[in-house]
Amino acid sequence: MTQWSGYLGLILQGALVTIELTLMGSVLALIMAFLAGMGRVSRFFIIRALATTYIEFFRGTSIFVQLFWAYFVLPFAGLSLTPLQAGVLALGLNVGAYAAEVVRGAILSVGREQYEACTALNLGRWQGMRHVILPQALLVMLPTFGNNAIELLKATSVVSLISLADLTFQAQVVRSQTGSTLMPFLSVLVIYFALALVISWGIRTLERRMARGLDGVRV
Amino acid sequence: MPAPIIKVDAISKSFGAFKVLDGLSMQVMPGEKLALIGPSGSGKTTILRILMTLEKIDGGHIQVDGEQLYHLERNGQLLPADERHLARMRQKIGMVFQLFNLFPHKCVMDNVTLAPMLTKGVARAAAEKRAMELLDMVGLADKAKAMPAQLSGGQKQRVAIARALALSPKIMLFDEVTSALDPELVEEVLNVMRKLAAETDMTMLLVTHEMGFAHDFADRVLFFDRGRIVEEGKPDEIFRHPKQERTQSFLKKIIAAGHRV
């Protein structure tokens, strides 16, 4: 039993790496989502084209391949990344491409009358976007962002392929050292699920807080 | 005689195959209160939206306050206006919409102060002081902290009027501002507009189906049909003694529908 608690320690270390990857990947994904999502509705063709290219490319190729490129191919171009950096880069760019479409859709979901009110009040395009459209669109984005974050959490397991000691990697280690299959895999199953629950709960809380006052009931 | 503040010259506008404005021309004098009436699809709302730069024109010219709205004058030539010119021209004009178009995520106060702070660089304290005066004028000083969703339709529309006034436009456009309201809420909005007409010298253009109000409020009434002004004149002339047959039949229908004239 004492021996098993030592192995559990290994798995928890892996969980920390997974959390770290999820957080950092999510931040990069969020930045990319807003850049590309707003780029898609830009007035300028070149910005729209760049955003579309990014989105289609990263949605259209496998995250495994993207990770291998980040870790194994980029060094040939003189850019050597640590496994963690490569993991964050691949995850952030990949999930950011999906989330960019969420941003675009949410921006377009805000009614035309809100854009017209901005024009009538002489707000500039960016002023209207920043103060009127995006705050309303954010509420529409949140639930799907929650999905994206959970997808990202689960996708972090691919980094075990470039020898980063995340949750999945550590489970394999424990399995090979103890010969027990059930315990390590059951632990990581529970931990992934618990982490996903935390994300769901966090997003729901955020959603409730942001919706306050909009329906005239809760203030 | 002073120069007109709005000069619309041969404006045409189509939505697809539907010609909504067909060489429309009109002039509005400074301080004039104008009522635009007519059947739906006659172009009265469209000309308001064009004045607010919410629709592009297909042809013609508009002068507002002595300047071209959609064109820039360069070396005697008229070129299409850029966004900067439009933004400058929009400062002269405010608009109130049928469906209020308040910002649902901002409280009443923030709805009113947002544009003055952003577009005119007014400090928050000054913007809020002015907003309180305006909210007081529309009878909603006690609702400054309320969210739009907590207000009745009539209250929302009064906030929307205060919001437009906060930018001190020379010209105010009212697009069927009472059409979406429950009947018992119409009067509170109309009262605010009466007050506005009495206390300010703003030029006001009003698209409405409230014929009784148009009669009392307007200096001049324009009857629109099929993208043109068919008849215009003093309220009494239009409502009591319409000359054109189309005006007569329109008013007859409106009266049959129970509107007071």
Q: What's the quaternary structure here?
A: heterodimer
Total strand count of chain B, please? Answer: 12
As residue ranges, the low-confidence spans of chain A are none
Helix content of chain A: over 70%
Written account of the structure:
The complex is a heterodimer of chains A (219) and B (261). Chain A is built from eight helices and no strands. Chain A is mostly helical and 219 residues long. Chain A has one domain: Orthogonal Bundle (MetI-like fold), CATH 1.10.3720.10. In chain A, helix 7 (167-178) runs antiparallel to helix 8 (182-211). Chain A has helices at residues 2-40, 45-60, 63-73, 83-109, 112-120, 125-155, 167-178, 182-211. Chain B is α/β, with parallel strands linked by helices and 261 residues long. Chain B folds into two domains: 1-92 and 177-261, P-loop containing nucleotide triphosphate hydrolases (Rossmann fold); 98-168, no CATH class. Chain B is built from nine helices and twelve strands. Chain B has helices at 44-51, 83-90, 108-120, 124-137, 153-165, 183-199, 211-217, 235-240, 245-256, and strands at residues 6-15, 18-28, 33-37, 59-64, 67-68, 71-74, 77-80, 93-96, 171-175, 203-207, 220-225, 228-233. In chain B, the strands form three sheets. Chain B has a six-stranded mixed β-sheet with strand order 8-9-10-3-11-12, sandwiched between helices. In chain B, strands 2-1-4-5 form a four-stranded antiparallel β-sheet, with helices on one face. In chain B, strand 6 (71-74) and strand 7 (77-80) form a beta hairpin. The radius of gyration of chain B is 19 Å and the shape is globular. At the A-B interface, helix 5 and helix 6 of A face helix 3 of B.
